[in-house]
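Researcher: Can you fold this with heme C in place?
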Amino acid sequence: MKTQSGSRLVIALALMTCGWSRAWAQASPVSIEEAEASVRQQVLKQCFVCHGLQGESASDKYPRLAGLPAAYITAQLQAFQSGQRPSETMIEIVRAMSVSDMQALGHYFERQGQAGRTTSIQ
Ligand code: HEC
């Protein structure tokens, strides 16, 4: 009898753990919509001031980000953070940034493609 109640306990525990892990799995990965909303917020808060809302950059002082490969953007942000690529401006921006934020920003700007390109009248 003792073993039986013991195994019931194990089954009960296993079921509970399953339930918990399922709830955790649903809550834990950030949905694409959430990730995009958070990227848009970051862009609106910081990047757009210098690089433009779509990374289109209207000034020679700030590099154009629209259409750059996401992997390149992520690598540059990591390089700013590590100091490998020195920039007094960008180091402040990336100081507390996580790699997943950098990747999300990279994808955002890559998708902006030809944003802000004007047809040249020459
Ligand atoms: C205050 C102005 C400013 C803000 C705000 C800013 N940047 Fe920059 N960014 C710069 C400048 C200046 C450079 C050029 C740095 C250098 O190479 O000296 C740069 C360079 C970059 C580069 C490298 C581009 C290339 O062609 O290699 C990336 C990527 C970048 N910024 C992303 C971002 C992102 C993402 C944000 C928002 C989270 C952001 N920046 C916010 C000024 C800014």
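Model: Folded with heme C in place. Residues 42, 46-47, 49-51, 62-63, 65, 73, 76-77, 87, 89-90, 93, 105 surround heme C (CB under 6 Å).
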